[in-house]
Protein: Methionine ABC transporter permease
Amino acid sequence: MQVDLREFWPKILEATNETLAMVGFSLLFATLIGLPLGIALVVTRPNGLLHNRPLFNVLNAIVNFFRSIPFIILLVAILPITRLIVGTTIGTSAAVVPLVFFAGPYIARLVESSLLEVKPGVVEAAEAMGATPWQIVFRVLVPEALSSLILNLTIATIGLVGASAMAGFVGGGGLGDLAIAYGYQRFETEVMIITVLLLVVMVQGLQSAGNHLSKGIRRR
Structure:
């Protein structure tokens, strides 16, 4: 039985809003975790501003552990934690929890990569002027790496869009849930095509916005 798309558009709009909400909240919380974690990886590494090998090894191991778990497995593995935090394992709010666990360590690595791109001479000049390690981090490293940070956060956001679609396998809501419930389980090809196109448009828009913002900062 073919679905009536005219009646189905409200569901598509609702699923799109759910995907945007999942990605937005997940990116916010994952950045709040990943940004300081990435900075910590940079400053505590050997020869870092606050070098601390034991702490670096612990943080590095934690990041590598979570990054080594495929999202679909992580999604199921932390269901008890998800239930503990939001009281349910189904719906948009429940999908945010595994998305944060997935994206936080990933963003930490991206932040680490961006900060390590800053030329050592810039840091050495700041040290010669008597700047403290945290002044160097927030007044030198982060501003110098801002363009790269924006590009890497764009990459992380696009990764979250793809992961949010996978959350549909456990009733996470959004376009992924819609595609599975109607496009896959009910063989509604039109719904599958529409959801794919919407995800493509979303990713293209995010990438273009990230490129434009990064380029604008680089020119300053």
